[in-house]
Amino acid sequence: MKIELKNDGTWCDFVEKFFLRLIVEQRKGVMARIATLLARKGYIIGSICVGKHIEEGEASIVLTLRGEEAEVKNAKDLLGKLIHVISIEMYHESDAVERELCLLKVEKGEDLKAKLSGFDFKVVKEGKDFAVVEIIDYPARIEELVALARKNFKVLDISRSGANAI
Amino acid sequence: MFGIPGGVVIPLYDEIYHEKHFKHILVRHEQGGAHMAEGYAKASGTVGTCLGTSGPGATNLVTGIADAFMDSIPIVAIGGQVTTSLIGKDAFQEADLMGITTPITKHNFQITDPNEIDTIVDSAYHIAATNRPGPVYVEIPKDVQQKEVTAPKEIKLKGYKVLSGFDKEAANEACKMLLGAQRPVILVGGGAVYADCANELRVLAETCMIMVASTLHGKGIFDERHPLSLGMTGMHGQPPAVYAIQRCDVLFTIGIRFDDRVTGRLDGFAPEAKVIHIEIDASEIHKNRKTELGILGNAKEVLTYMAETVKKMQWKSKEWNEKLHAMQREYAEDINIDASPIDPRRLMFELGKVFTEDTIVTTGVGEHQMDVAHFIKFSKPRKFITSGGLGTMGFGIPSAIGAKVAMPNNPVFNVDGDGSFAMTVQELATAKVNNIKVVNVIMNNAYLGMVRAWNDMFYEGRRSQVWLGKIPDFQKLAEAYGLLGISVERPSEIADALQLAMKNEESSVLNVHVNNEAIVLPIVPAGASNSEMKGARIPKDYFTK
After folding, report:
1. Among the partner residues A25, A40, A78, nearest to B158 by beta-carbon distance
2. The sheet that has A47-52: what strands, in order across it?
3. Nearest CA in chain B to A36
4. What is the dihedral of CA A101, A105, A109, A112, to 10 degrees?
5. If both were cysteines, with which of A33, B395, B485, B541 could B387 make a disulfide (CB 3.0 to 4.6 Å apart)?
6. B92 annotated active-site
7. What is the side-by-side strand order in the sheet with B229-232?
8. What's phi and psi for B379, nearest 5 deg?
9. pLDDT digits (tens, 9 = 90+) for B252-276
10. Is B30 helix (H, G, I), strand (E, B) or coil?
């Protein structure tokens, strides 16, 4: 058993989430090598978060994978063989600090701040008839905020960074 | 280097033209070139090189590259590419070989700056040869071949380290498991050959008095004539070897990847065994069979340490080895069969008589391949060269040529099938022109024999598109290439024909007409447990008694 998606798109309850954190050389095609390797071995990437790392020319990539520990360990070992992967670590979700950035564009309405109270969010841009809300939290909290926003406003767009972890 | 020029590699070949010490062998098809590089690498233990032009030249290399990837063979395949400014514009003879080769190489490089050629080519050979070996593809666009090198740049491989050392605690634990076992067996694969651990393996096996089975690619790393050898296991393996693994309590594996042709149905494989797995590639440990003890490291180092550690093991019970030896005696078969048409086993008998321990044997893929694997014993590693993982028909002739180029003093035979042989037969020209001597022995049954056998066994005899019909006449075809061709119809003619071919100074083709209806037995049906192995002399209770 690798990763199971239910028909409604949610994950089976019994699969655990792991983070793979890769330090890679910043080169053309590195993401393609990672993505195709995981795809042809049957893994589904939950999210990807990429940015520069400490050294010049190196980037940090955080992937989330779900599955049994041994299966994800095998993905780690496979990725570790890629020549451009300098190092790779694997964490269980309970062992990592996890955050995601979500930008939410909603139709401007009454009481935006009041209706989303309880969440640590910022309004980062306001137009004539829209507002952009930024929230940084762990993914489950973001799901809750999105659900609340959808209930109260017309959501025009959502852009999420994918889970970051350290 | 085994290569063939074309449009965008003309500048590269122009440099080769000026180079006096560069050994280039002109092949007739890039697939042949790639298999020659594989044969060269497998016979010599060094890296083989092949080259093709962009587009179709490079796509023709792909089968050989994929084959090398499956069997962990160190080759560097070099492909041309259209001029950098034309890449992505669907130029003449452009194909995305970086995309195509990514899943079938250890790594691939596209060189976009002539100043990087030197260091990238060095890196390619380093990556191909070290850790778990494998193919590396290097793509050189035409303009990069033409521009001058001004200031060579060094590329650092930050993410690639040669594995060194191993977990000694784990090796100690492995020794304890072996010492505590009642029915231990060692199973060696191709990884053991690459680790070059024949001596260390023999010392460990003899010290502990543990019998050794091998996979297809492990043949020869442990002398198959040694009293502790069980021979090859797997789908067409020796039944006593299959029995030993099915019934063992500790299975000590070295450099194997638990391929389905070795394990049969995975959950029925060695059901009572605790498995120890020495492996150089971390992603192979637990990939198929979950092992009790994985040891990441070079097998030669680990076995040296373990042999020191176990020293003299007082064997508690001789029963297990005695039982296995008895089973071997019981299964021993007289294959000097005087039947007409020729029984393939008789051909194997005659070949076995002329092969020495230094003879290199390559094969195509099919019944003849499994006959060689089952009936011919190899005493040294790197002498049996065959396409195991990918199962590439047409591997025989070119890999034999590559092996002969690498090891000119060893006799080289290609034992082939009529179907396989025809797939790369054009390389007879390469053998002729370059005066490379290979004895080709075709086991000609006019069929795609292994498919026909499966049609008969598993598809109720519906022989669908498997009749080849003895076209062409391979004796005449050999003569058309200016080579010696001999047709053999009767069992009594085989020995003389072999002598004639071996004495001949050039390559030769023996077209041996064998029984059309012969099938390879024993067999573990695909998807079945190894304990369901079928064969004339395997009673129902064979694996339970």
Report:
1. A25
2. A47-52, A58-67, A16-25, A85-92
3. B103
4. 10
5. B395
6. yes
7. B229-232, B211-214, B184-188, B250-254, B274-279, B293-296
8. -100, -20
9. 999 999 999 999 999 999 999 999 9
10. helix
Q: What's the gap in Å between the CA of B108 and the closest CA on chain A?
A: 9
Of the residues B105, B122, B131, B158, the best mutation for testing chain A's interface (the one with the most A CB atoms within 10 Å of its CB) is B158
* Cβ pair B1, B51 in contact under 8 A: yes
B283, B284, B285, B296, best to mutate vs chain A, most A CBs in 10 Å: B283
pLDDT at B20: 86
Sheet holding B2-3, edge to edge: B25-26, B2-3, B48-52, B75-81, B136-141, B107-110
Task: Give the relative orientation of helices B30-44 and B56-70 as an angle to the nearest 10 degrees.
Answer: 30
User: Does residue B146 have an active-site annotation?
Assistant: no
Catalytic residue among B1, B30, B177, B421: B30
User: Could you tell me whether strands A121-126 and B211-214 are parallel, antiparallel, or unpaired per DSSP bridges?
Assistant: unpaired
Any catalytic annotation for residue B450? Answer: yes
Q: Tell me if B283 and A80 make a contact (CB, 8 A cut-off).
A: yes
Predicted confidence (pLDDT) per residue in A91-121, tens digit: 998 899 999 999 999 998 778 888 888 888 9
Q: Which tens digit of pLDDT belongs to each residue from A144-161?
A: 999 988 888 899 999 999
Q: Are B174 and B306 in contact (CB under 8 A)?
A: yes
Closest CA to B266 of B537, B450, B530: B530
Query: Which residues 64-123 of A have a C-beta within 8 angstroms of B?
Result: 70, 73-74, 77-78, 80-87
Contact B103 A37 (CB under 8 A): yes
B93 is catalytic: yes
Distance CA B244, CA B213 (A): 9
Q: State chain B's mean pLDDT as an integer.
A: 96
Question: How far is it, in rounded angstroms, from Cα B428 to Cα B507?
Answer: 8
Model confidence pLDDT, tens digit, residues A32-63:
999 999 999 999 999 999 999 999 999 999 99
Q: Mutation target for B interface from A38, A68, A83: give the one with most B CBs within 10 A.
A: A83
Entry pTM: 0.94
Please say if the pLDDT value at position B464 is more than 50.
yes
Distances in Å between the Cα of A104 and the Cα atoms of A9, A130, B188 are: 21, 10, 58
ipTM: 0.87
How far is residue B324's CA from residue B211's CA, in Å, rounded to a whole number?
9
Q: Give the minimum alpha-carbon distance from B231 to chain A in angstroms, rounded to a whole number.
A: 31
Q: At B164, phi and psi to the nearest 5?
A: -135, 150
In this prediction, residue A15 carries a pLDDT of 76
> Which chain B residues touch A70 with a CB distance below 8 Å?
286, 290
Q: Which residues of chain A lie closer than 8 angstroms to B162, CB-CB? A: none
Cβ of B427: how many Cβ atoms within 10 Å? 29
**A 8-27: CB under 8 A from B:** 24-25
What is the H or E stretch that residue B354 is in? helix B344-354
